[in-house]
TrEMBL record, chain A:
<dbReference type="GO" id="GO:0045815">
    <property type="term" value="P:transcription initiation-coupled chromatin remodeling"/>
</dbReference>
<keyword id="KW-0539">Nucleus</keyword>
<dbReference type="GO" id="GO:0008276">
    <property type="term" value="F:protein methyltransferase activity"/>
</dbReference>
<dbReference type="GO" id="GO:0005654">
    <property type="term" value="C:nucleoplasm"/>
</dbReference>
<comment type="similarity">
    <text>Belongs to the TRM112 family.</text>
</comment>
<dbReference type="GO" id="GO:0141106">
    <property type="term" value="F:tRNA methyltransferase activator activity"/>
</dbReference>
<dbReference type="GO" id="GO:0046982">
    <property type="term" value="F:protein heterodimerization activity"/>
</dbReference>
<dbReference type="GO" id="GO:0070476">
    <property type="term" value="P:rRNA (guanine-N7)-methylation"/>
</dbReference>
<dbReference type="GO" id="GO:0048471">
    <property type="term" value="C:perinuclear region of cytoplasm"/>
</dbReference>
TrEMBL record, chain B:
<comment type="function">
    <text>S-adenosyl-L-methionine-dependent methyltransferase that specifically methylates the N(7) position of a guanine in 18S rRNA. Requires the methyltransferase adapter protein TRM112 for full rRNA methyltransferase activity. Involved in the pre-rRNA processing steps leading to small-subunit rRNA production independently of its RNA-modifying catalytic activity. Important for biogenesis end export of the 40S ribosomal subunit independent on its methyltransferase activity. Locus-specific steroid receptor coactivator.</text>
</comment>
<dbReference type="GO" id="GO:0070476">
    <property type="term" value="P:rRNA (guanine-N7)-methylation"/>
</dbReference>
<feature type="domain" description="Methyltransferase type 11">
    <location>
        <begin position="27"/>
        <end position="99"/>
    </location>
</feature>
<dbReference type="InterPro" id="IPR039769">
    <property type="entry name" value="Bud23-like"/>
</dbReference>
<comment type="similarity">
    <text>Belongs to the class I-like SAM-binding methyltransferase superfamily. BUD23/WBSCR22 family.</text>
</comment>
<dbReference type="Pfam" id="PF08241">
    <property type="entry name" value="Methyltransf_11"/>
</dbReference>
<keyword id="KW-0489">Methyltransferase</keyword>
<dbReference type="Pfam" id="PF12589">
    <property type="entry name" value="WBS_methylT"/>
</dbReference>
<dbReference type="GO" id="GO:0005737">
    <property type="term" value="C:cytoplasm"/>
</dbReference>
Amino acid sequence: MKLLTHNLLSSHVRGVGTRGFPLRLQATEVRINPVEFNPDFVARMIPKVEWAALVQAADTLNLAEVPKEPTEGYEHDETFLRKMHHVLLEVDVLEGTLQCPESGRLFPISRGIPNMLLNDEETET
Amino acid sequence: MIDIQTKMTERALELLCLPEGQPSFLLDIGCGSGLSGDFISEEGHYWVGIDISPAMLDAALDRDTEGDLLLGDMGQGVPFRPGSFDGCISISAVQWLCNANKRSDVPARRLYCFFSSLYSALAHGARAVLQLYPENSEQLELITTQATRAGFTGGVVVDFPNSAKAKKFYLCLFSGPSTSLPKGLTESQDADQATELAFTSERAPHKRARRDLLKKSREWVLEKKERRRRQGKEVRPDTQYTGRKRKPRF
């Protein structure tokens, strides 16, 4: 699971609503995957990123050098874009858990795939 | 099998009308082993896929797909914060929501949960193109009703409506202001053939027209023949003798 995906994931447990974001990340196995750098895509994703959640997740994974916020004119700042590309797309969480901040429900991550299946009682009706 | 999936993904991406020359971030519902995802990647876009089958997702892992995968049930809602995606596609998956696998499943509720969460997860103005195999028109109507309730506009685009084998349904949903529905593909260049059904909160006027016709009257016979012509069946031409009163022994 990439950190970009984690930044968009929100708990859909019944009754949680917007308080289901961000999911608290705990990782036991992380891998760095080289991914082709696409500055257009990274620049387009920057406005979508929730920075507090991203910085928090990066801290849990002990990632060095994560910018605290987008710099002015980031669209043309290649160094900044490359750093964000690495953080968002090249860090892959293989094993771990995601925890809903409101309900405490745990979603396990196995082989890089988060299991978001809910029980009947937890499903929003 | 692989080729059909890829062709449908290509057509779905075409119907998605993504802005040219820039990479988009898409959600693939029912991504399975990543066949559709691979095509999305080849087109230069990025994606996240959801599927309910661990076996299919394992196959996707073996195929080393580029997009992130999630194990999830679309009928429980797509778990993303608002405005996450530039678009959504789905190949041959949404009709499964109409099956009630457990006694507690209510298809209409699951459909609504799926569509309302999808509506939220899409960026404003984004589209969703869902290729599906509806079992019958009631099922298709159930699906489109829930999509409308969730706030979507749009309609069903039907490709090759006269071919039993090639006929494909694409549910095209718009989350922003109303746009015109793309035309479905046909073998011939018949422009008068209606290949799309737009749905809004308007009632269907033609159903009422049929009810007003007296059964077995000449108008009714002509209407029925016209209907069969539209279905592509062979019908005798209309003449002055069509629907005339026959002798009692007939």
